[in-house]
Design a protein that fits this description.
- It is a single chain.
- This protein has 3 helices and 4 strands; from the N terminus they run βαββααβ.
- It has 107 residues and is of the alpha+beta class.
- It has a single domain (4-100), classed as Alpha-Beta Plaits (2-Layer Sandwich).
- The protein has a 4-stranded antiparallel sheet.
- Helix 1 (18-34) runs antiparallel to helix 3 (79-88).
- The longest helix is centred in the N-terminal third of the chain and has 17 residues, at 18-34.
- The mean pLDDT is 95.
- InterPro entries: Dabb, Dimeric_a/b-barrel, HS1/DABB1-like.
- Homodimer.
- Residues 4-100 form the Stress-response A/B barrel domain.
- This is Stress-response A/B barrel domain-containing protein.
């Protein structure tokens, strides 16, 4: 089975404190640590430092490489994942989640 890479980005709501942002990222790291059996790499990420101006206001991005689609599909409905998502929605204005298999374009 081919690995699946997840790209995700968060845009925090105005007024979100650095402490809240750090807590959301610490929770993300713990979530993936607790599910390490599903993941080959990650989470890896950071804050934008591009000078091109195409960040669309997103504050932080990360990638994770799941071992397979089956592992990603096991992770998505996991109660800990659902609880994490719910825990950050009060401070997150927008989210992008994009999963792909390397080199598979579908056309």
């Amino acid at each position: 089975m081919a690995p699946v890479t997840r790209f995700a980005a968060f845009k925090y709501k105005p007024g979100t404190t650095n402490e809240q942002k750090r807590a959301s990222l610490d929770g993300l790291i713990k979530l993936y640590e607790d599910n390490a059996h599903m993941v080959d790499v990650g989470p890896r990420g950071g804050a934008n430092n591009s000078t091109e101006g195409f960040d669309k206001g997103f504050d932080v991005v990360f990638t994770v490489v799941f071992k397979s689609k089956a592992h990603r599909d096991e992770f998505v409905p996991d109660p800990a994942h659902l609880a994490y998502k719910e825990s950050i929605m009060s401070i997150v204005e927008d989210v992008i989640v994009y999963d792909y298999e390397e080199g598979v374009f579908g056309y």
